[in-house]
Amino acid sequence: MDDCPSALQIQNSKGEWTYADPVKDAFFVNLGDVLAMWTNDKWKATVHRVVWPPKEQERLSIAYFVVMNPDAVVECLESCLGLDETPKYANISYKEYVTARMNRLDGKY
Questions:
Q1: CB-based contacts of 22: which residues, under 8 Å, 6+ apart?
Q2: What gap in Å lies between CA 70 and CA 54, rounded to an integer?
Q3: Where in the chain are the domains?
Q4: Tell me: the pLDDT tens digits for 56-101?
Q5: Pairing verdict, β 17-19 and 73-74
Q6: What is d(CA 90, CA 70) in angstroms, rounded to the nearest whole number?
Q7: Contact (CB, 8 A) for 27 and 64
């Protein structure tokens, strides 16, 4: 692990930003909205941002995004439902989900 301070910040439930400090020999896995839908919010997507490190420091981050089959149905996994619990999200194809998400962003990324 290097001496560069963390550049990754996550937002807590109060809306405050806090640094996600690096942990030696570990990965930081940021879950997305689809995994939250599959798990009925048992695992939640993390609101996050990256801040620039000081000029004298360098940082290398590698992002890996998984793109699903557009026809795959995103639905709550039965194992993520408690007794008498119903899914929080309606079943939707991945293509419909991405289209709806892009429409909500209104062209803003």
A1: 1, 6, 28
A2: 40
A3: 8-105
A4: 677 677 778 888 999 999 999 999 999 999 999 999 999 999 999 8
A5: unpaired
A6: 16
A7: no
